[in-house]
Amino acid sequence: MNGKLYYTDQKISFDVAKNQTDKGDSVQNWDYVPPSLPLKRGISSVKMRGIDDAPQELRQLNQMFEDEPWSVLRKKSFYEQALVMVDFEDDADIVPFSEYFPVYRSMNTAQLRSYFTFRKLIRRGEYPDVGLSYIFVYIYEILMQIGIENPNIGLDILKNLKDAYSFSQPKVIRYLDLWMQDYVVYYRLTNRVGEFFIQEKQEDDLAALLSDYKDINETLLFDTASLIASYKIKNGALFKKYPDDVTSVAARTIKAAIPIYEQRTTHHIEELCLGLKKQTPHPIFASAVFYRPDAPKENSFQISPRRKYYCKGGLWSKDTFRDKIFQKKGEPFGLILQETDRRLRISMHLKFSMAKKIADPIVENAIQKAIDQYLLEKAEEARPKINVDFTKLDKIRSDADIIRDALLSEEEIEKDLLPTDNQLKDTPEIAEEPPTPCRNNSIFSDQEVSFLQLLVKSGDWKNYLRNIRLPIGVITDSINEKTMVDIQDIVIVDEGDGPTLLSDYIDYIIKMI
Description:
By secondary structure, this protein is α+β, with helices and mostly antiparallel strands. It has 22 helices and 6 strands.
C-alpha cells in the first residue's frame, strides 16, 4: 500500500526568512505575519453601547478596559480600576446584573451606572433590593480596603451587609462568614477575634478545660463532658430524678476512665474528643476577587493559644482539628456517660434500665469501681453522727460541784454520814469488806464500772448515782471522753429519756467492765 496516500506529521519551520526563500509547493512554505501592536484584552472590538453618553468617569473606566494588557491579572486590574472610581457616584435606574466573580469589566454601561448608584445608596446607609452580583462587587471593594481608612470600619460594613441581605440574599451569608474571619486575620484585628471566632473560641476553651480535667470541680467537668458528648445524659430519667448523684458519679467515672484511653492512644483527652491538631492550606478570601499590592509574605495571627493562622511565602494556612481518633466528636465522653447512666441505675435498683453499648471490660470495671465507691461514701454519710464537745466537760464538772455544794450543807453531809441507832441495831455484822471486783485493766473508774454494769443489766442506776452524789451528765461525759480516746467514738447517748448504751459497743463495754 502506497504510504503517500495517507497524512503524515511533518515538522513546520518557524524560520520566517527560510519560508520566504522557499519555492514550490513545499508544506513548509507558509506565511507568518507578526503583530504590529501588543495584544490587548478589551471587552469587545465593538465600542461599549451608550458609553459616549456616560459620565466622564465611566468613559475613563472604559478606556482602562480597552488599554488593559493581557499580562495583567484580572484581580489586579479590578483593584487599580476601583482606586480610580473610589469617589464616583451616579444616579440611574438599577438594571439586572448576574455574573460569576463579577468585576467592573463584567458590566455594560447601564450596569456600571446601576452599580455606582447602588454603592452610593449603601454608603448612605440604604440597602436597595439588587442582584447578588452587585453586592459581591461591593464586598470585594471592602475586602481590598477601597475607600476604607480603618479596617475596623470595613469589618462593620461587611457585618451590616450580612444583616441587611441575609433574608433576601441568603447565599451571601456563607461567603461573608468566612470572609469576615479572613478579614480579621489579614488586617490583624485582634480586638475583633472574640466577635467573629465564637465557635472556635468555645471549642478552644473546652480544650483548655479538658486538659485540666483532673483538677476542675465535678460540676464543671460534668457540664463540659455533657456538652461535647453525643449521649445527652441530662435528658435521661435518672438525671432528672437524682441530678446531684449523677453529676458527682459521672465526674468520678470520667476521671477514672479517661486515663485508660489516654494511655492506649498516647493522646490527651482534648485531642481524643476534639480532634488532632493539623496545619492545613487556607487560601485567604477564597472565591473572592481580592488583590493587595502590600500582601504579606511572612505572617502569623493567633486566635487562641491553641489555634493560629500562618502565611509563608504568600501562601496561607491555619491550624485545624479535623483528624479524629474516634468516629464522632466527644465519643469517649459519650461512651463513659452512657455506661455510667446504665450501671448507676442498676446499682441504685431503679426499674428503668438501659441497653449496653460499650464493650471494653477495663473501662467498664473502672466505671463500676467509681460508682461503688460513691455509694459506699454516701451510705457512710447517712449514718447518724453524734458530736460531743469535750471542751465543755470541765465546766460541766465545775457546775455540778457548785450545785452539789449548794444543795448539801456541811452539817447535812455529816448527818447523812452518821448512822442512826436503829441502823446500828439492824446492821448485820460483817466479817470483812468484800473484795473489789477485777476490772481487767479497765479504763474506767470503780464508779464508772458500777454505773456501766447497771446500764448493761438495766439496773437502778438512778439510785446508785443518788447514793454517790454524782450527776448523770458528769459520769456519762467522763465515760464518753475515755472511749473517744480508746475507740474514737462514744458509747452512751441520751436522747431525753435517760442514758442508753449504743448497741454496736455492748460487747466492748462488757469486756471493759
